[in-house]
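Troubleshooting entry. Yesterday's outputs looked truncated, so today I'm pasting the complete records for two proteins to confirm everything comes through intact. If either block looks cut off, that's the bug. Protein one:
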Amino acid sequence: MKKILILCGMFLISTAFAQDDKQKNPGVELPDFVITGKENISIQSSNKIKPDFVPIISEEFIKPVFSPEQLETKDIGNPVKEDLNLFDSLNFYKGRLKVGAGLYTLPEAQVTFSEPFKSGLFNVGLIGFNRRAYVDNSDRYGLTGTAALKYFVGDDSKFLPGSEIKIDGSYGINSYKLFASNFPNIRRSFGLGNAALQFNYLTNKVIVAAVKLEDEFASLNDVTFSENVFKISGMSRLQLSNFAIGVNA
């Protein structure tokens, strides 16, 4: 009987402590039942956006487009209508001298001189050489002179504006012996020259023309021989709105 009373007392004490713990730390009460279910949700698929092709070199790089603000306009003058000025360059040299020498050539020289003026240019030149004999009677010397004059008609002229007139000529002598012939001591001098007159009218939009008169001549001193060859050449063209006519000679 005593043991039964002790067990009942312990049961009552433990129940009191358990209720006290529930009051201090209330637990989460679960429901008596749980509702479960199944639902199908369908999501409409969409096409993926494709990215644009990015080339290494774009068309804009090959064909750039500039705005009008980026392009500055500039007046381009007509060089034909501008006044000719041959003195506007600081690097214009009026003369040149070239001298050479070698084992058998002593000396060889070339000198030129140019003089510009308001409406044209004048120049002269001289070329000479002396070659020693490398075998008997094989010596030779030569001398050549040149001269030229260019005259430009101003574009404000009333007669043939913008035309050009050119006069030039040259003459040279080569003196040598016939060292490989049966008469090696005979010296021969061969003269060769030419003179030319040229006229150019090429700035007109309707008609252009050019003509050249040229004479080539040669002579030998040891024999009675001389020759002249006269040449005429030219061209002309007439340009109209619907057709053009041209002549070459």
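Protein two, checking that the full record survives here as well:
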Amino acid sequence: MSDPITDAAAPLHDEEPPPAPVTGIAGKTAFYIGSAGLLLATAADSIAVLGRHTGFALIGSIEIVQAAIVFIAASSMVAVTLSRGHAAVHILTDRLSPARRAMLARIANLLGALAVLLLAAGSLILLGDLWNGHERSELLHIPLRWFRLLM
């Protein structure tokens, strides 16, 4: 008699290998930008918390953390895309033949690329409209155009 807890069901197809580590210039650049953003956010928040207990106020700490999060988010999206590590659900496609599965994967990649191109086009339109607006953050007056350019 088999034990349902220890006996795992056989996978429907070979398991995909884990994502490869991010290498190359783009991957390393994304890693270092994300690391710098994380260190900046941690330092700003830590100084702000310590300052509350010692009577020292770090004005604009929330704005600094928000600016750092732009770098963290952008670099993590680039790193995951380079390593092909995005989450994927294969409930329906596992039941298809390998040829059909490959065809659907190509269609999904094409639709994903089209969606990213549409988002990039919209972002460029907004960037062009707001470039000469000289929008700045409230307390520290950090120019926001460069963060829009990054995203």
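Both blocks look complete. Sanity check on protein two: The helical segments are 24-54, 61-82, 98-130, 145-150.
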